[in-house]
Amino acid sequence: VAPTTPVCEVPSSAMTGTVVELSCKETEGSPPSEYQWYKNGVALLEKTGTGSIRATNITYTMNKKSGTLLFNTVTKNDTGEYFCEASNGIGLSQKCSVKRMQV
Question: What are the Ig-like domain coordinates in residue numbering (predicted)?
Answer without folding.
Answer: 3-103
